[in-house]
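[job 4471] stage=fold_predict status=RUNNING
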Amino acid sequence: MYLPKIYEKFSSKFPDVLKDYQQLGKTCRESGPLEKKYQDLANLGIAIGANSRGAVMSQTRKALESGASQEEIAHVVLLSLTTIGFPNMIAAMGWVNEVLEGA
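[job 4471] inference complete, writing structure tokens
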């Protein structure tokens, strides 16, 4: 699994913070009825809305790993158009395509 260097540095400098953060994420995932694939697609949409390149790319990888198709992922990006606007949607599409082209 790809991990950015900044993530690796953070995890070695603050292992307890990372452990607690990961536990919070696990607790959030287990607190609702959505299957993992749909959680990952929802998180992708949130990352797109936040205009976060790193999060979009990470959530794209996670969505693929949980069984989302490239078409489902592209649909999530397209759905962002009317909420975040064309330029931001196009940026997100580029980030997603970077991951998909490497998959």
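[job 4471] summary: Helices lie at 5-13, 15-30, 36-49, 53-65, 70-79, 81-84, 86-102.
[job 4471] exit 0
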